[in-house]
Design goal:
This protein is an alpha/beta fold. About 50% of the residues lie in helices and about 15% in strands. The strands form two sheets. It has a six-stranded mixed β-sheet with strand order 3-2-1-4-6-5, sandwiched between helices. It is globular, with a radius of gyration of 20 Å.
Length: about 280
């Protein structure tokens, strides 16, 4: 059996409960994949996006839903060794990838010295939407996982002063008919790491200059990731509770909310309750 066949088998056998079942559940619960979808699978070169590609490939082969997949790698200005690593992993995983180049790293370094990650993310998203439209895709699949969701939830509360999280799908407001989906929404990062180690796979990280600097360790997301790890030592269910809290918002016990452009404060809510008595 070819090595890539063993890797594929590990997804649906060895890690069926931790990875495959949660992938299928997310796709069904959030209605992420539909018949005749043409999905651009974004591969950054990391463990998450490569696993996402294999999961969707397995679904396309053996699932009940007929889908067409395009595996795309956007090169934001990676060093040559990073690109070679991505190509090697794609061959090892039997994935036919298309690489297209951009100057995102160079532009970000030049115009956004204070907050490069935010600018880089925005530029990446724009390039990906353009590429998806060029390929005739109606969906873009990203490899965000469960830990990304709960980290975003705490980041928003602790440093954004708002209750907000990463959602499983988003409809583009600027590109008609295009939707962004996150099929790994329920999969924990530790299980992705274990899957990669089990198969002897090594992937690149972000591979930009900023992440190589020492000061990157001061990033708020990494700070929150470490905080959640401490929470897990106190109670292993805390990460699950953070996630579920975003499904169990009690609108009778909040101080206000925003929906689109409307800001509703506590007095508004209180008045509405009094009127409904």
């Amino acid at each position: 059996m070819n090595d890539f066949k063993l890797i594929e088998k590990s997804i649906i056998k060895t890690y069926r409960k931790e990875i495959w079942a949660k992938f299928v559940k997310a796709c069904k619960d959030y209605n992420l994949v539909c018949d005749n979808d043409k999905i651009m699978v974004c591969i950054s070169g990391g463990k998450d996006s490569f696993l996402l590609a294999k999961l969707l490939e397995e679904l396309a082969r053996h699932g009940d839903t007929k889908i067409d997949l395009k595996y795309v790698v956007m090169d934001p200005g990676y060093e040559k060794d990073a690109i070679e690593k991505i190509k090697t992993n794609a061959r090892n995983l039997n994935l036919e990838i298309t690489i297209f180049q951009t100057d995102i790293f160079a532009v970000t370094k030049k115009i956004a010295k204070e907050n490069p990650c935010y600018m880089c993310a925005r530029m990446r998203r724009g390039y990906l939407y353009d590429k998806a439209m060029e390929l005739g895709c109606n969906k873009i699949a990203l490899g965000h996982h469960f830990d990304d969701v709960i980290e975003t939830t705490l980041l928003s509360m602790l440093y954004g002063a708002e209750i907000k999280t990463m959602v499983p799908k988003v409809t583009s407001s600027n590109f008609k008919g295009l939707e962004l989906i996150r099929p790994m929404f329920l999969i924990k990062e530790k299980d992705i790491i274990n899957w990669a180690k089990f198969n002897g796979l090594e992937f690149i990280n972000c591979a930009c200059e900023f992440t190589k600097r020492k000061e990157h360790d001061l990033g708020k997301r990494l700070e929150v990731k470490r905080l959640i790890e401490q929470f897990r030592k106190v109670d292993p269910n805390i990460d699950h509770n953070i996630f579920k809290s975003m499904e169990n918002v009690n609108l009778e016990c909040i101080l206000g909310y925003t929906y689109k452009d409307e800001k509703v404060n506590f007095d508004d809510l209180y008045a509405r309750k009094e009127d409904n008595k």
